[in-house]
Amino acid sequence: MTMIFGIPLQAFLGQLLIGLINGSFYALLSLGLAIIFGLLRVINFAHGAQYMLGAFIAWLLLSYLGIGYWPALILAPLLVGLIGAAIERTMLRQLYSLDPLYGLLFTFGLALTVEGTFRYLYGASGQPYATPALLAGGANLGFMFLPIYRGWVIVFSLIVCLGTWLVIEKTKLGSYLRAATENPVLVQSFGINVPFLLTLTYGLGAALAALAGVLAAPIYQVSPLMGSNIIIVVFAVVVVGGMGSIMGAIVTGYLLGVAEGLTKVFYPEASNIVIFVIMAIVLLLRPAGLFGRDA
Amino acid sequence: MKPLLKVAGLNAWYGESHVLHGVDMTVGEGEMVTLLGRNGVGKTTTLRAIMGIVRERKGEISFAGEDLMRVPLHRVARRGLGYVPEERGIFSTLSVYENLVLPPALAKGGMTIDEIFELFPNLHERRNSTGTKLSGGEQQMLAIARILRTGVRMMLLDEPTEGLAPVIVQRIGEVLKKLKERGMTVLLVEQNFRFASKVADRFYLMDHGRVAGEFPVSELSGRMEMLHDVLGV
Question: Which keywords has UniProt assigned to this entry (chain B) (predicted)?
């Protein structure tokens, strides 16, 4: 059997793959958090709930309306995005003039409310969501067996992350977002509707979380607590990458996913805490994060 | 001259602090008017209140016959007003070119990119560098240039010469003269009244959040002594 660093190659590549899949979710979620924080200066604690909501809407669409995975991949983010925009417009907006802590507390309360409601309605146990037929089965890569759906998650999330990055770095809308992140008042004085830009950004961030939720539904079970399980890790990712850095959030998401996967191979006992150990080290040595600019 | 901007009884607050106590002024179409005054008398606040950045305000502001008091900030530019802040506000995450084309062109009669690059050749050379890598003078040029694209009729210009070398100050003076030839109306806040005397038609002297005096450029030399006294320069 081929060995690498004293570990069977299959085990190594298998965990690398799992790491990349987890990393895909970390990247998608921390990307949304970073965009929202950059422009709104709100630490969106509802991000996990929005992720859960995406998965649940996909499950509800399938269970009650017979609407499958592919339409859900569009409908769920759209719906959660609209809910997010409405929440920004009617509630979150009132808090911008106050201490940032209020935004954090509000979104935290929102997350608890949404999660509690779904727990009450559907219980704490997970609901299975079938892999779409088109992506069922697997491919034998010779050195390992790759479930096609997992390959799809990695490729698709990478496309979404890079697409979002391109929109922000290379388009006119992106230049508005970047400029408004630096100086919203001046951008508004140029005739750009910054309040609308804030609504759009929060909606987009929420939609990204919901998209990750739909992607996650066939891999993890759909449960009311799936968001709060992952969001703590995602916050660690954002801290390591540096708040407000878009590329930093993406790269750190994948890196930490892989680091977590590989730790499972070499020292399984530490795999649950490795991300937090890295976070602690980064906070000590480079408080602004790996990609963050010093404030 | 037809008044383009009319301000009457303008009061403004920053939170608890009452900064403007009834400012009255008019600026005619195509006129270049300078606000003089010591630090802290409310010159910048006057510009920011006219633009609608300072929202805690009372009184009258009308532009081209239209009431601006109820217009939200992002709709003011559409009426034809542009604001160039003292700190210039060049965006560090945008290239020079991106900074230049950031404000949308909202009205006809704005300068084209080619005309702007002709007026500011430096910006053309450095169009791909990061906005904040420019020198102070170039940043000031960029801050003025990006307003010119939008078709504004009137510029609110806050201390454009602050901290700049004499040769750059002279260059900015030339730019303002060219803009005046094109019919641009300008309300300028300036400490450097030697510079202001070369470009302005008329002066308002501000003190304690009010207009304390007004005179045309022709009376400037006769008032030098008084101005030195009042401005402490």
Answer: Amino-acid transport, ATP-binding, Nucleotide-binding, Transport
